[in-house]
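#struct-help
A.M.: can someone run this one for me? Single chain, 204 residues.
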Amino acid sequence: LVYKTIIRPHLEYCTQLWSPVAGHGNWSSIIELENVQRRFTRLINDIGTLSYSQRLEKLNLTTLAERRIRGDLIETYKIINGVVDYCGGIFKMSRSGSNIISSPSRNKDINIRKLVDSFLSERVVRYWNMLPLEVKHAGSVDEFKTYLESYKRRSIFKEVGGFWEVSDELIGKIEGKSYTTNKESHINYLKSNPDVAKRRGINM
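D.P.: on it. Structure tokens below:
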């Protein structure tokens, strides 16, 4: 509770302005940020010796990296739908109004191109365009959050791709091959025990 109410808000303050894109050159920064949550979850009685992925599952937490992308999606929804009165023109929308069109920099300087690609208007494109229409067309911010979580639960063990994949990639870098093996075992367990999956809100 202390971590969620006091520590984590500091780690997520204005992330739409500075969140590092998951990719080459940024993983060291992403892991360094994640290490704060890793350290705090180790302090909790009875689970401190578990792996990071197991601690997250026990505590019903996601990685900070995933939370930042989720935050990007929520902020994007607010901007596109006029819930907020800033950044109204940063997204170039498709004719249908459902997808965002990428506008990468053509500058010859690779550092400038990387900087532009790290802006919210670019880094969120892939994740937004993956969302089903029912999520994008939610009637309110709270409804969007609910649909987003429902979409994740329906799809997390299916090969459809989504914002949650950054957690798998990040934890794989932290825990190595053991994470991949444990994840496969966990999926097989849930498939063999659909009642457990149902209680956890997971659609297998």
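A.M.: thanks! The radius of gyration is 18 Å.
D.P.: also worth noting: The chain has a mean pLDDT of 89.
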